[in-house]
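Here is one chain, start to finish.
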Amino acid sequence: LAGCGEEAAGEGSAQLWITRDRGSEVVLSTTVPAGISALEALRRKADVETRYGGRFVQAIDGIEGDIGKQRDWFYFVNGYWADLSAADYELHDGDVLWWDHRSWKGEMRRPVVVGAFPEPFLHGWDGEKRPAVVLGPAGEVSEGLADLVGGVVNHTGEAANKLVLVPGSGFRARLEGSPGDPVVFELGLKD
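Its structure:
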């Protein structure tokens, strides 16, 4: 397809999710080739309007960002909020590329989200996967979660992604730093 404006794909595939309002409405869920940019993957499956020299998304299938309403398109790769242009991120085999049209009122930046779980444990960022550790009571639940995320139970590791089992309910994620840095997910378990 040289000369047609499409990037050449690499080996493997990635998932593409297009949603609204933090995933509450699914617009599209499909696969795209790995080895192309996040923007090219989106263009192959949807009608896209860009801004800022074509490097950032303004609208997908007619759903536009709106500064006045404080709504825009944000994209995540394997649960990490991407901190670079979609034209600059190359998809890797197994990646989950998630475009979400959402409000940013009161919360512009969400560095990591639980909506793509078990990502980023499985594929990490930019093709680099961190070790995974499940911290919690020994038993079937911890072992099952360790199997799910490709990790181990109750080992320490400074550079590991951690899934911490805590009393209560809920599922939260946090990241101190940039995409690819270790994440901590907290999963509430009721007695």
